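For the sake of transparency, this paper describes our internal protein records without simplification. Because each token names a local backbone shape, the row as a whole describes the fold. One such record is reproduced below, unchanged from the form in which we store it.
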Amino acid sequence: MQHLELLGEITRGGQARIMLARNNHKKLVIIKYFYTFISFEREFYYLFKLCHPLIIKLLDKIDNKKHPAIICEYIPGPNFAILLNSAFEHSHMISALLLSYIAQQILVILSYLESYNIVYADLAAENIIVSPSALILCDFASAHEEFEKPELICGRYDFLAPEVLSMGESSRWSDLFSLGAILFEAFMQRRFKIVDAERDKIELRQALGTKYTELYYFISSCLSFSVWQRPPSATAALRRMSLSAVKIKEAQEELNYLRLKACADLAQRDFF
């Protein structure tokens, strides 16, 4: 068992408490202490099974019945929710190009999960870390196999697809609904409300304009109340979200600018 020096708490949620620590090699790592053994087993199972550059890397586990935990790589950077709050505070509008890039990055992850018949089931801005080079998905405590009814439903009410709210059943199409809600909030700079979904789509179309019609139709279809009106899969949607190398670089520069702004805001708050 490696020695870990605890440095402080990063955050805590409904299923776990997350700490920053330093290992034997003086490298920073994340320790996630779970409140229940079931959540620990589920997240360890999926992170152990999956290997993708856009999914947080599992390093080890602490198999303690009272305080089970996993040890993951430390990724320098804020989560996407903090980045968006910082952008809103500085009146920085997320460009449609960056929105397309964000959609593409998350679709890459969802497409990878689809290849294993895995539903993420808790897609939210808080579970996406913005690293210097990419968006990294973490927190797999709610993930489950396709067509398996989840034991626990997590997530913000307006990010949960209608079928999750009515029947407690989440699927790959439920993940796409959550993605649509994230993209809507990122671009419109206000909360998405499921009861106002149709009105929100109209406002989104006006805001994106005719240049980004394809992006509008993608987000609008994701936010459909009917599963059958959403994209057939993340893989199929990804094929229509291609960006040139020049556009990707431009989007990455904007994202990194916002990431550095968010990091500066966090550092200032911690200082004061």
